[in-house]
Write a structure and sequence with these properties.
By secondary structure, this protein is of the alpha+beta class. It is about 40% helix and about 30% strand. The protein is elongated. It holds the Pfam family Bac_DNA_binding. Keywords: DNA condensation, DNA-binding.
């Protein structure tokens, strides 16, 4: 697993920034993606992929312990669709 701190450290090393500056850049990117998702907008990062907000409808489900039917409320979810370049890199 890669953490935000590891990404920030790599960014700082490769671009001559301090670790604090690298962490600030990573957090700013994540904040921008989050703000776009909250607004219902898609974020496209060419060569990496797209973050999209999708609506999930209300549905019925079962409680596995009791077998009782319950309603699961409608919600929004954030999905990620990888770009072709990323898929190709993963499947070399």
């Amino acid at each position: 697993m890669t953490t935000t701190n590891e990404i920030a450290d790599k960014l700082a090393t490769e671009h001559g920034l301090t670790k604090v500056q690298g962490k600030a850049v990573v957090e700013a990117v994540i904040a921008a993606i989050t703000e776009a998702a909250i607004a219902g907008n898609e974020t496209n990062l060419p060569g990496f992929g797209k973050f999209k907000v999708k609506d999930t409808p209300e549905r019925e489900a079962r409680n596995p312990a009791t077998g009782a039917t319950i309603k699961v409320a409608a919600a929004k979810k954030l999905s990620f669709q990888p770009a072709k370049a990323l898929k190709d890199a993963l499947n070399k």
